[in-house]
Task: inverse folding
């Protein structure tokens, strides 16, 4: 593990630049621990899990860092715990790890990086909250994550932002159980996609494309002009707002539901406008609904286009409304 120390209170703010290196078969490639501050630029590096790790030496423990104990495989490429200065991470490669980038109570900008095979060894760390995730952020202090022009493949989740604002634009995600997860309990915004074509996120062969939840009524959610394709024998869904209480717009997205599931789901959410989306249900026998409302109130569903593969199937509906008054 390569350990970078943050500044203690009263110390000068350190600057760390890590560029052009290869980190192969490390438990953690770069670890930065807090509480404290550090200004870091980490660019053009490769983080690889190529071979099983050597057994831990006598007395080795990851307990002081709050990490799971080493269990034969690389845990993370970059792990930052409570360093409160925003980080910049462009053009890094993460392959064959249990997780790519983990940010705890830390804001960051991650761009033009690739994350592949984060699900290869996730089972080695069953109690690790970020197992299988490419880009993961968890915060109790707000802040933000910007994810721009990254590639994700073969992950449990491509990116997950729990707490604080998220701006996800221009990313490509494929062959993963989940694409983009965003949860925010503060007044910040969740923005996934955008009006310009270069802001569009593309998700292919996922079970859950985009899952968002904002519980602060002063927050805002905008999910616009993304391309999502799902493949799931169980409950697959393209875009799902679950328990959302902030004003939200789901507009201009193109969603193909390959097997079972729904295109857009508003589940116990309110104040959502779902407009001008195109949903294609490709399996008449397995599809559930183009747009599914359950426990939703105060929502507007308008000017959407829903197409099916033909008649048949008990749940092959254009719009399904269940226990959702006043929409």
Result:
């Amino acid at each position: 593990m390569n350990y970078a120390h943050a500044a203690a209170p009263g110390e000068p703010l350190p600057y760390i630049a890590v560029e052009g290196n290869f980190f192969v078969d490390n438990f953690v490639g770069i670890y930065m621990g807090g509480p404290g501050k550090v200004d870091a630029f980490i660019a053009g590096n490769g983080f690889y899990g190529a071979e099983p790790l050597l057994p831990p030496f006598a007395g080795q423990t990851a307990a002081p860092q709050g990490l799971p104990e080493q269990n034969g495989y690389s845990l993370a490429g970059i792990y930052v715990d409570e360093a409160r200065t925003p980080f910049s991470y462009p053009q890094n490669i993460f392959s064959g790890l249990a997780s790519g980038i983990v940010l705890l109570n830390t804001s960051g900008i991650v761009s033009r990086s690739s994350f592949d095979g984060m699900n290869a060894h996730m089972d080695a760390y069953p109690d690790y909250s970020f197992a299988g995730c490419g880009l993961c952020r968890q915060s109790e202090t707000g802040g933000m994550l910007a994810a721009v022009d990254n590639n994700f493949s073969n992950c449990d989740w491509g990116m997950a932002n729990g707490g604080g604002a998220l701006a996800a634009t221009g990313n490509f995600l494929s062959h993963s159980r989940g694409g983009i997860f965003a949860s925010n309990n503060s007044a910040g915004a969740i923005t996934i996609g955008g009006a310009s074509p270069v802001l569009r996120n593309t998700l292919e062969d996922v079970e859950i494309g985009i899952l968002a939840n904002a519980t602060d009524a002063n927050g805002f959610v905008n999910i616009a002009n993304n391309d999502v394709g799902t493949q799931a024998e169980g409950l697959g869904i393209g875009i799902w707002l679950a328990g959302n209480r902030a004003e939200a717009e789901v507009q201009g997205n193109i969603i193909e539901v390959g097997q079972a599931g729904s295109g857009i789901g508003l589940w116990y959410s309110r104040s959502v406008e779902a407009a001008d989306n195109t949903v294609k249900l490709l399996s008449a026998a397995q599809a559930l609904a183009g747009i599914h409302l359950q426990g939703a109130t105060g929502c507007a569903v308008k000017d959407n286009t829903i197409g099916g593969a033909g008649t048949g199937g008990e749940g092959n509906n254009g719009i399904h409304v269940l226990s959702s008054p006043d929409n």
In short: The chain has a mean pLDDT of 93. The longest strand covers residues 172-184.
